[in-house]
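Suppose a colleague, Dr. K., hands you the sequence of a protein chain of 314 amino acids and asks what its three-dimensional shape might be. Before reaching for any lab equipment, you can write down a predicted structure in token form. Begin with the sequence itself:
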Amino acid sequence: MNKNYFEIIRAGINSTFQDLGRSNLYHIGIPFSGAMDNRNYLLANKLTGNNHNDPVIEFAYQGPHLKYHGDKINIAITGDVSFKIKKGGNLINGECYQSFILENDDELDIISTNKSVYGYLAISGKFDLKFQWSSCSINTKAKIGSNNGEKLSVNQKINVKEINNNFVLRKLNYVNTKIENIRVIKGTNFNYFSEEGKKIFFKNEFKVSKLSDRMGMRLEGKKIENIVDTNIRSEGLIKGVIQVPADGNPIIMLSDHGTIGGYPKIGVVVSADYDKLVQLTPGSKVKFQEVDLSSAETLFKLYDLETQNLISQI
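The predicted structure, expressed as tokens, is then:
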């Protein structure tokens, strides 16, 4: 057995290995997958001195409880997360966006996310993982990625094949902010919907349903009327596209989405708002705001610039 490893005491609700995902495979039905909240993923790796595309553990709501065995290692957690570190008889309250050193037999208990969905655990080194199509990202619906395409389980051991010995303790002053107005561009089937339906889409609030996961986010609200056809010939889908099935309630395609679908598409969430969108918990209220393509491109450039600025501060 590898001398450096984590033992899973509690797996958490949906703990998986993720990186930046896999590209150029839509033609064979494989979506990008990868970390849901890209900014928090990148910040976690930077805090531990890793490469930007190194695998991390992504968890939803309740995270894993881990016991570490081996040489000392640096870890960091990003998101809005409550966690504790047990060192001998001492219990330390953890802080997000700050690195901590774990030593042999220390325990890391990731208790929960706070009014958000996803959090990220990075280590100063590399997990011993198998890659598939140049990515370790797990898609549990398709059973692809590392760990046989499965989420982490109790009593599992996660080997660490390399520690980068970067023990500089780093910290970033960063606060996750909420989003209520989700900016979108018009979808390819925008004109399938009545004028009243379009007005409802842009003026009314929708509630995030409990029926949401890494594949898609279902919304509940006033029905969006389709005046052409509630089903179309299946077409390619992208992350962030908003479909409207016959019940009139929007579904936003997320990172593990199917690559084709036959529901009309009313809009697409701009990339700059995606990270905050996926952190919306069930019951959250959202409104859609229309922007044009040029504005969406500018918004992404600003988002990317802000992300790189945060990384440079670490």
